[in-house]
Automatic annotation (TrEMBL), chains A, B:
Pfam families (UniProt xref): MarR (PF01047)
Gene Ontology MF term list: DNA binding; DNA-binding transcription factor activity
Every HTH marR-type domain range: 1-132
Organism: Lysinibacillus macroides
Entry superkingdom: Bacteria
InterPro entries, per the entry: HTH_MarR-typ, WH-like_DNA-bd_sf, WH_DNA-bd_sf
Protein name: MarR family transcriptional regulator
Annotated keywords: DNA-binding, Transcription, Transcription regulation
DNA sequence: TCTATTTATTTAACTAGCTAAATAAATACT
DNA sequence: AGTATTTATTTAGCTAGTTAAATAAATAGA
């Protein structure tokens, strides 16, 4: 068994666990953060736009949005096309995002700061060179 | 948001999905394969040895072993220390392992074959250079 | 116009990780 | 010896991904 896969899976799991740990202070999980960041960057989006952007399946997003809605982070609005739901950040979310972003930046610096910019580019290049 | 994390998580998810896909022909999931491979390599192991080796929490292994046991891949035996359970591969599993290993080798070649040995080492080195 | 197909979302059920707490056996301490 | 602590496993319940199938609205075609 090629150790690359084991190492890659381990690191991925380890990093999401760490991310969840630092996000605890904001009462968020990493998958919830991914959606909030996506909405912050792109503005209001339909569910389909979100899952295509994050490259996960629709039901994962439906469930996460439902949770974020009950927690007051987002709102679901009917679209002009009655099939689609438009998701927007709540005022409360907009207010809290800067502090969360600070947390994330510190986390990233801690995790990946030991790599030079060239090494980071090298890493991305190698990742992309794997099939898929 | 540093794109390294997104890329890493995506690739990890993509590779496990691919692995699950090729393992379908053997009616196995990737996490089940990880345990079977571990037992093949190390011989009989206690649950604790397995979860420490695979670096996941104990309940994940308890559940996976229960499933593998009902499917006939492994057996749970009482240890001399009555607290521990010793897990062994079934005869059926031993019989089927070579074919599964062929599948896995082909999968690895497909996924990572486009990288030279140096690139693979480079990749591992960069992974390890990240904190953790 | 009516029907068939496509598209957006949701629901159900599965694997797979996690933490926290329960249980039972072994070990350590007085 | 008897109690307290540690260790191994399990159970319960959570996030988070997946596929398959249901529902409802929009679109395309006869």
């Amino acid at each position: 068994m090629n150790p690359i896969f084991h190492a890659l899976f381990q690191k991925s799991r380890y990093l999401t666990n760490c991310l969840n740990e630092v996000l605890k202070q904001h009462h968020l999980y990493s998958s919830q953060w991914a959606i909030l960041y996506c909405l912050h960057k792109n503005g209001s989006m339909t569910l389909t736009q979100i899952w295509k952007y994050l490259n996960v399946e629709a039901p994962s997003i439906t469930r996460a949005i439902t949770r974020l809605e009950t927690l007051g982070w987002v709102e679901r609005l009917d679209g002009e096309d009655k099939r689609e739901k438009i998701v927007t950040l709540s005022a409360q979310a907009e207010e809290r995002l800067p502090a969360i972003m600070d947390t994330i930046l510190a986390f990233e610096e801690e995790m990946v700061g030991s790599l030079t910019t060239e090494e980071q580019q090298q890493f991305m290049m190698l990742l992309e060179k794997m099939k898929g």
